[in-house]
Amino acid sequence: MELISFLHYRKKSAVSKAKKGNKEAFLALIDENRLNLYRVARGILKDKEDIEDALQNTIASSFQKLNSLKKDEYFRTWIIRILINECNEILRRNKKTISLIESEDQTTYSDSYEDMDLTTAINELSEELRITTVLFYFEDMSIKSIARILEIPEGTVRSRLTRARIKLREVMSEV
């Protein structure tokens, strides 16, 4: 229990230092959460460049808005919320973009079973189910934390996880 208290104090201290303008403390926080942020972005976005843009925008935005973080212990939740908003903005922007080059070969056969795995199955989920699934299973976040990040009731998180499991079972059983 003492170790958990020490780690909690250390993280809170790093956030406090970062809020006071200590760039090294901020970079340490980003480094500590780097893998979590990447996995969340990858769970929402497909394109490598979009993922990199979302991460870069999140880091810049969070540095600028760091003083708006009310409770230091919620830094991880707070930065993931910023990342989700950035990813959603990129998705909205991409929907508005119309490809100028139409594919001439529209008769290309695509094998839907090629390279089928859990990640591919998760990527086939709707956005709301995919985000919830990634946060719960890949980020080990509690239902309460997910509800807070997505600003939805805990019951909605549970129902999305149930629907995602059913859909994943269906997709994986086809393989």
Automatic annotation (TrEMBL):
A Gene Ontology biological process term: DNA-templated transcription initiation
One Pfam family cited in the UniProt record for this chain: Sigma70_r4_2
InterPro entries registered for this protein in UniProt: RNA_pol_sigma-70-like, RNA_pol_sigma-70_dom, RNA_pol_sigma70_r2, RNA_pol_sigma70_r4_t2, RNA_pol_sigma_r2, RNA_pol_sigma_r3/r4-like, WH-like_DNA-bd_sf
Superkingdom of source: Bacteria
Residue ranges of domain RNA polymerase sigma-70 region in the record: 29-96
RNA polymerase sigma factor 70 region 4 type domain: residues covered: 117-168
Keywords: Sigma factor, Transcription, Transcription regulation
Molecular function GO terms recorded: DNA binding; sigma factor activity
Family under the similarity heading: Belongs to the sigma-70 factor family. ECF subfamily.
UniProt-recorded name of the protein: RNA polymerase, sigma-24 subunit, ECF subfamily
Biological source species: Clostridium saccharobutylicum DSM 13864
Taxonomic lineage from the root: Bacteria, Bacillati, Bacillota, Clostridia, Eubacteriales
